Structures are given as C-alpha cells and as structure tokens.
C-alpha cells in the first residue's frame, strides 16, 4: 500500500510495507521532491502523521519501498554530474529531511579510480574461476544470480527478498545496454556459482563514455569478490576505459577498504535517513 502526499512545492510517496528497522513496524518515504527545505519539511511532517496513524514506529527515507529500488540521498558531492543509475537529490532535500527530524542511519559513498597504472591484485584463491557471460539466455543466467543474491544479501541492513519474477523484471530491461566483458560469474572448483559482478559503461555522460561503473557485486565465498573485481578492472582497461566508478559502497563494507587500496578517490557521499516515531525509544 502506498499514499501520495503533497503540499505546495513538495511531494512524497509513503510506502507502508518497508524493511523493518530495529524489528519495529516501519514505513518509508520515497519519490521525494521539494522546491524548498520548508516545503519538504512540511510534506515529511504530513507523511510522519500518516505513518503514526498507520501504526508505524519507524520511518525511513528516501526509499522507494525497499533497497531494490531507489534509496539514499546525496549528502556531499564534488559537483560532478550524476552517473548512470545514481540516486539524485535536489539542493533542498537534505535540509528538508534534517528539518523534519531525520538523521543518517546508514552512510555510503562512490569513488572514482584511474585504471592506468592501477595496482590490481590478482585472484588469490586458485579454486575460483571467473567467467564472462557469453551473451546467451539472459533469463537463465540472471536466474542463477537471483538465487545467489538471496544468500549474499540476506545479512545486509534493510534487506528484503523479492520474487524471481520481480528480480528479472528489474534486470532484464538493462540487457541491451550490457557489455558481456562486464557481466562476470565466479565459480568454485565444482562449478557452483559463488559470486557475480555487473558493470556498465557510464552512459549517463553520453554514448561514448570513458568511465565504466562497477555497479553490483556479491559473493558467498571469501576471495570471490577480489577475483571478480580484478577481472573487471583488467577488462575495463583493455576495453579502452580510463576510469572506473566504485558505486554506492556502504562505508563499513570490506569493499570500502578495497576501493581505497586501489586508489579510489571519493567524489560523492550518501545517507539513508531515519526517524524514530515511538516515544518509548527516545
């Protein structure tokens, strides 16, 4: 269930079925736009009242229902243009959430790394092999990724599972934009899938970008992530790209350390905001 709420100069959707925060009934505010911080604060106050009336004890935002869809707002930027599929925020978004009493509850960043001369460590687990998607039967390949994602992402904060049909509905439309050398699968000695990585050229900057985005990768075996990243960076350099974006990394994730080790330079910070609604938790 969703509710669309609006005031003069601001609009938000209240998602009643959101990932639980602290095990409490939680709703989320998403699809947020505002022309000013005051207009944004007013519509968020309206959403808070509706959430309280609906029995919520926690409120997350911005989040379009769950972490499979757009969430997070920009908290710091070097002013560079947004990259493909990056969360976007208006200049008044953060002040509006802050004025409405929201505080950051999870922080993320994106970093840019120069591919030339990168000290790209090779895979260290000889039992892990990385294969490139051959471009055939995307539904079957992405179906395998769905199965692995249930295990790889289950421990992430605010994770909620989705159906196979919904997952394929999200990813298959991007297939025409994908380059096979940036769709990678890691397998163990028995051939079982233990990790995956999706990269995509930054078409947000135009039809011939010089930057490729490491969009998503996950693994269920130690060493698979490094193997995937190593192959990805090497493939991007050989394909003529000059830079890679390490996109939307949680600041406590091991990927944050790896990005820094590879020379990643942070250019954007983000936050998921939250507000406690039940007085007993204050």
Describe this structure in a few short sentences.
This protein is an alpha+beta fold. It has helices spanning 37-53, 93-99, 138-152, 164-171, 224-238, 254-261, and strands at 2-7, 10-15, 26-34, 58-61, 73-77, 103-114, 129-132, 183-187, 193-201, 211-219, 243-250, 265-276. Strands 1, 2, 3, 4, 5, 6, 7, 8, 9, 10, 11 and 12 form a twelve-stranded mixed beta sheet that branches.
Explain the overall architecture.
The protein is α+β, with helices and mostly antiparallel strands and 282 residues long. It has two domains: 2-107 and 271-281, 3-Layer(aba) Sandwich (Aminopeptidase), CATH 3.40.630; 129-241, Gcn5-related N-acetyltransferase (GNAT) (Aminopeptidase, 3-Layer(aba) Sandwich), CATH 3.40.630. Helices cover 25% and strands 32% of the residues. Strands 1, 2, 3, 4, 5, 6, 7, 8, 9, 10, 11 and 12 form a twelve-stranded mixed sheet that branches. Strand 8 and strand 9 form a beta hairpin. The two termini are 28 Å apart. The model has no long low-confidence stretch (mean pLDDT 93). InterPro entries: Acyl_CoA_acyltransferase (IPR016181). This is N-acetyltransferase domain-containing protein.
Q: Features of this protein?
A:
single chain, 282 residues, alpha+beta, Aminopeptidase, twelve-stranded mixed beta sheet, 12 strands, 25% helix, globular, N-acetyltransferase domain-containing protein, Acyl_CoA_acyltransferase
Radius of gyration: 20 Å
Q: Describe the biggest sheet?
A: 12 strands, mixed
Order of helices and strands: EEEHEEHEEHHEEEHEHE
- Shape-level CATH architecture of the largest domain: 3-Layer(aba) Sandwich
What percent of the residues sit in helical stretches (DSSP H or I)? 10-25%
CATH class value of the largest domain: Alpha Beta
Quote the average pLDDT. 93
- SSE class: alpha+beta
Number of domains: 2
Which descriptor suits the 3D outline? globular
**Unreliable residue stretches:** none
End-to-end distance = 28 Å
- By CATH, the topology of the largest domain is Aminopeptidase
How many β-strands, per DSSP?
A: 12
Enumerate how many helices there are, as a single number. Answer: 6
- Tell me the β content: 25-35%
InterPro entries: Acyl_CoA_acyltransferase
Protein name: N-acetyltransferase domain-containing protein
